[in-house]
Write a structure and sequence with these properties.
- There is one protein chain.
- By secondary structure, the chain is of the alpha/beta class.
- Helices cover 33% and strands 22% of the residues.
- The chain is built from eleven helices and 13 strands.
- It has a nine-stranded mixed sheet with strand order 7-1-2-8-9-10-11-12-13. Strands 3-6 form a two-stranded antiparallel sheet.
- α9 links the parallel β11 and β12.
Length: 316
């Protein structure tokens, strides 16, 4: 029986997460709660609605969402427009989304079989072949759905398609092991080397993550590492030096590229749609000076013999 995955986005023709032109599947559910997360819709493992007030036609002209909702008083209106959902009482049945004519309610998450995903993937095989691309799974944390990813990657390999798994690796090794036989490339983050600080900003310590990265390198798996460079969190030189030491001493030649991802205020509208606070609201940056700072960090890593670039390209 084909495995099913809870997927909240399928992005075709992407060039950011792995080599060449790719199809990327974003899976729901994540054990981390990074304050700068740009995909808050990925965090919960279940299907859920997002509310986009600006798209609402108004209760007076429409109101079908309220009629469809099986729980009275769950939908909240302000000045005639749907503005939020009482998520403590919402059953995530998505009846409101099904009837909304203006897409003011968006469904985050959809159960898809491996074959349904392969039907989308096969459409672009010619692009993969010409560009050296393939399929990437991301999230959220895709390895929360490791059986699905393993079966999907096996199906990709059966058709000669390159596979890439972008993971936090904050997972038990038994879940990671399931996908490795059919995975060509791994992508992961190092968010902070101090476990207490890591927990403060992501909700979890980094112990399991670093342990898994070391084991992957020891067993010979090639990886691309990323650092989301967050002002006032992990961009100080003490942390940067500690990260370089870890890469050189524990991961060695298995890191083919280190990518620095500059902090940007992304996903704010999605936080609002989900009724979630945006954790980086107070962080203000001068874009020009911050980019210069990130460039200097890249120069430091390169001076240590670690191939480092700013952005998601493997070469500059």
């Amino acid at each position: 029986m084909s495995q099913k995955g809870n997927i909240f986005n399928v992005q075709r023709f992407t060039i950011h997460d792995g080599p060449g032109m790719r199809t990327e599947l974003f899976l729901k559910g994540c054990p981390l709660r990074c304050l700068w997360c740009s995909n808050p819709e990925s965090q919960n493992a279940f299907i859920e609605p997002g509310v986009y007030r600006k798209k609402c036609i108004s209760h007076k002209k429409c109101g079908v969402c309220e009629s469809a909702c099986p729980e009275e008083g769950v939908l909240n209106f302000y000045r005639g427009k749907l503005v939020s959902i009482d998520r403590s009482r919402c059953t995530n049945c998505m009846e409101c989304e099904k009837v909304c004519p203006s897409e003011a309610v968006k469904q985050w998450g959809k159960w898809m079989t491996v074959e349904e995903c392969m039907q989308i993937i096969r459409k672009d095989k010619g692009y993969y072949d010409r560009s050296g691309g393939g399929v990437t799974v991301s999230g959220g944390e895709p390895l929360l759905q490791s059986d699905f990813v393993a079966e999907l990657f096996e199906a990709c390999h059966a058709e000669g398609i390159h596979t890439c798994c972008e993971s936090t690796f904050c997972m038990d090794w038994k879940e990671i092991q399931k996908v490795l036989p059919h995975t060509d490339l791994l992508i992961s983050d190092i968010k902070h080397m101090d476990s207490k600080i890591h927990k403060k900003y992501t909700g979890v310590p980094n112990t399991k993550i670093l342990k898994n990265l070391k084991r992957l390198a020891k067993e010979g798996y090639e990886m691309v590492l990323r650092i989301p460079v967050i002002p006032q969190v992990n961009d100080d030189m003490d942390n940067i030096k500690a990260t370089a030491d870890f890469i050189l001493e524990e991961l060695g030649e298995k890191v083919r590229t280190l990518q620095l991802l500059s902090f940007m205020r992304l996903g704010v509208e999605k936080y609002e749609s989900l009724g979630m606070p945006y954790g980086m609201e107070d962080i203000k940056v001068n874009r020009r000076s911050f980019q210069k700072h990130v460039g200097e960090i890249a120069e430091y890593f390169n001076s240590r013999g670690i191939h480092c670039v700013v952005g998601t390209k493997e070469k500059e």
